[in-house]
Amino acid sequence: MFDIGTKLSVTLNPDQLEAVTHTGTPLLVTAGPGSGKTRVIVERIIHLMSTGLKPSEILCLTFSEKAAQEMKERLEKITDVSDMQISTFHSFCHEILGENVLDSGIGIGSGIMTRSSTLVWALKNIDSFGFEHIELGNNAVNVIEALIDGISTFKDELITPDELADYLNKKFKQEKNLVQDIEQYDYLQKLCDLHKIYVKHQDYLKKSKLIDFDEMITSTIELFKKKPNVLSRYHKKFKHVLVDEFQDNNYAQLELVRLLAPSGNVTVVGDDDQSIYRFQGAYVANFQHFMKSYDNVKQCFLRQNYRSTQNIVNLASKLLENLPLRQKKELFSSNEVGDKIVIARCTHDMSEVEFVVNKIKELLGSKITRRDDTQRPLSFRDFAVLSRRRIDGKKFAQALNAYGIPATFVGEANIFNSATGRDLLAYLDVASNPINSALAIIRILKNSGISDQNIARINQEAKKRRRNSETNSDFVYDVLLDLGAPELDQLDELFDIQKQFQTLTSLPTQSTVSEAIFQIMMSVTDLYKSATQTDTLADRKKQTILKELYHLSLEFESQNKNGTLAEFIDYLRLLGEFDVELEENAEIRDAVQVSTIHQSKGKEYPIVFVTDVAQGKLPLRYQAKKFYVPNDLAKGLLKDEDEKSLALQEERRLLYVAMTRAQNQLFVVFPTKYAQNVRQSKPSVFLEEIEFEKNPLVEVIDFAGSTQETLLQEQGKVDIIQQDLQAKATKFVNQMQLESAIARIVDLSKVEYFKKNKTLDGFETEDLFTVESNNDVDALLVGEKIPLINKETLKLSASKFETYMKCPLQFKFAHVLEVPTPAQTYFNLGTAVHAVAEQLTKLEKEGQKPTEEIAFEILEKNWDSDAYKSEKKEDEDLAKAKEMIQLYLKWISENPNKAIDVEKRFKIEIGGIPITGSIDRVEQTPSGEYQVIDFKTGGVYETKNSIKEDTQMNVYALAVESTYGKLPEKTSLFYLKEGKMLENVLKTDNLERVKAKLDQVTRSILAEDFEARPEKGACYNCAFKNICDYVESD
User: Of 36, 182, 449, 669, which is the most buried if we count CB atoms within 10 A?
Assistant: First the structure.
């Protein structure tokens, strides 16, 4: 027998030794940050083996695959653990169900249904659920997400659909009591709708032979309870159960542990002070419930911190003093006292970024004493920048990269916002439905270097063909096949693209979905190859995205045996509606780690910056969960505090976790003002509680900073060189110093070559001059400029002006290149209501009194049910339409003015260019003045001040003047949804100012000034985001 106990004890402190060697009763190890938790677990396993247990008789359950792998690697250095079960809860349960199919009656042959697949399934089948109390509105995605997460919450508590139904039935029998609590009554009604989707989901899993992650655990528990003989086999197999990260387990996982170890042959290790996953179902009463579940539980505290300085440990402990009912722990450090914790109070959010960047630059290369007692200089990997939310970390990663400091921004990649993901989706669109993939084709053409002029020619030819055809094709692909557009050049490049597209379109008939994805990534295009040219973080992220898309195709196939490429694209489109982030495991070898606090769990760094520790940021403002288990249905132990209090407690623990990632030095940073806020920001309540301004453990620094803009220009050293060369080349071209310009262009070519190859070996200047000249350039040289815009045929409108002012590049895509866009079915409600208003006004002009019966009949004839995929959404919109019409009828009955025109078409000129459009309603007052009414079916977006500058209102006023000989008295927006009339009394000076502005816009359009103006919200909703290189994403 291998007696390891004495051998290990020399390297263990007393607390650790007690935890490792305890026998006879259940053991709860509370392990403070940096206290050697993993080491204790490993050595306890070795100790258990030294008492006679075989490796196969020990079951180790962990929270994550990474933790399981780390434990295996540690143990393998000491002994053979190939027979030991070390896995996550989910992997273990999946194996149990697979081994006991006959006893469980659960078929899981089709694979695992992930949360992503569940969300898509629910959104796709939304009409089948029969919701009665939940309003979808225009927020179906968030509603579905809340419902699916709600189902998971009930599964975590082991509450089945039948149990939920019984509970609701009992509650509604007590209706008299419920009526007194309207809020509870409303919530119970919503639970009735949740129950419907819960039942449907369970039926779908069973029918499809699928299982989700929650179901793995609940089904295993159900199997053990229904089949004692099966449970007995595992009692005999596992003599001891050990659980890591116990504070992150949910109630169902605790119940599984209790079933597996009823006699108390169990060790659980965790830290209730580091419980930060309650939002994912972690059971906050885990420790208390464990103590109640067994007799004679031994609780050991690992109090000695091997990671942080004593000052860091003391301040972090001070933070938790206000945590209700917390078990007091006398934590201490084995390391030096250390520097004071720096709390930097910055004047604004960009000075906060500047402080972090400057401090990293200052400390980089400084020698520090490591925890192995060696002295080594600080490198990039020794720094971590932590934020509460992923989006708040982005500015730090960008600023660090701007100064040539490599930064790993964990969580930055997002499949559907990334250029790589959009590129692959474009190829999929062409492969699946080439005759209606104009946007995808344009994106590919742009990426392939086809000029704007040639793209415009292709689109213009496609437009001509559409006019002469009754088919549903956009004809862009047809033009590309025959290259029949007039004056096309770059023919060699277009022939190559043509061949590529022919290969793409053959894939759906020759390959499965996953095979098609693989071929597109690996052979038909260079998407994957180009992402492997360097070992940069950017290329790693591209690879991660492509792999994830391939993984999604495999998952899709497992649930859709005969699924087509078109169906897979629909699946991806639906999935893209949800906020689905990638799991990123790749870490650059030497880079500053920028991540959320949650993602930093289990890690440690010599230098840590905890950022945005301000009110509203940390703690975040409380948002109640949409669905929760009522207290009188919950199976776990209940906390006395309300939900809001529990959420605040978790935010406190989150800051504690962030602070205790630091080994040598900790910086806590917050701004006193955020750019988007008018008011000053206050430090976090947690900082105020520790009295940071007079705390002896703290050094407060006030930092003003010097810039708010340059830090966010994402550029490395090579990019800075490139920018400088580009500026010089442009300057020399503008000054016609062509030899100097060519020299700078050669230098730029070197930069581009170096970016791709990381060396200049093999660069040949002559290669730069082998390209063919574009015919358009030849035309320019002889004075025959071929502009994108033809001034003779250009027509503008109020909406076109607004598009240009919002984003000139969007104007170019929509109205110059004429890139086709898919039909927007959500316009149906507004179109139908406008049609009713138009018809009723015509009846009014004819002297016929409009009635509700007539109005609804007009609505029915103009309503397009085919525009809706969801019957419930259609019913909701139809009800809204009727409400708006009723408001309109009421307004007509009270309106003293006379309608003189409806949908009045007009044409005026601004800057020599015709401006066209139509006015919803022109009225004349009893005194003979004109008024303009424009109907809106959406929400109120203008104010009494902004309407004065509204382009549409002012263009309409000029049109009335041109048509009727004088300006209208006022122009008004009538918001039918709200029943609100927003009036604008016209003033000549304001009108002239707007006219001058539109004149300037007209000149900019004629000058073909199409600079992009990316904004997050606008870019997300832009129809051209898939072909735009400037899309702003979170």
Answer: 669
What is the value of pTM for the model shown? 0.74
Counting beta carbons within 10 angstroms of the beta carbon of residue 844, is it exposed (0 to 12), middle (13 to 18) or buried (19 or more)? middle
Query: Tokens representing 823?
Result: 């039909």
Largest CA distance in the chain: 109
What secondary structure letter does DSSP report for 523? I
Cβ-contact 1031, 1019 below 8 angstroms: yes
d(C-alpha 662, C-alpha 345), whole Å: 19
Burial string for 87-105 (b: 16+ CB within 10 Å, else e) reads bbbbbbbbebbeebeeebe
Helix, strand and coil percent figures for the chain, each rounded to 5: 55, 15, 35
Cβ neighbours for 433, distance < 8 A, ≥ 6 positions apart: 566
**pLDDT digit string (tens) for 877-895?**
899 999 999 999 999 999 9
> Judging by beta carbons within 10 Å of its beta carbon (0-12, 13-18, 19+), is residue 542 exposed, middle or buried?
buried
Q: How far separated are the first and last CA of the chain, in Å rounded?
A: 58
What is the tens place of the pLDDT at every residue in 536-575?
A: 666 777 878 888 888 888 888 877 777 899 999 988 888 8
Burial of 279 (0-12, 13-18, 19+ CB in 10 A): exposed
Q: Are 248 and 275 in contact (CB under 8 A)?
A: yes
Q: How far apart are CA 626 and CA 952, in angstroms?
A: 40
Segments in 88-227 forming alpha helices (H): 89-99, 101-104, 115-124, 140-156, 161-173, 175-179, 182-208, 213-226
397 token code pair: 């990663």
Give CA separation, 573 vs 237, 443, 568, 698, in Å: 47, 17, 9, 50
Instruction: Tell me how long the chain is.
Output: 1034
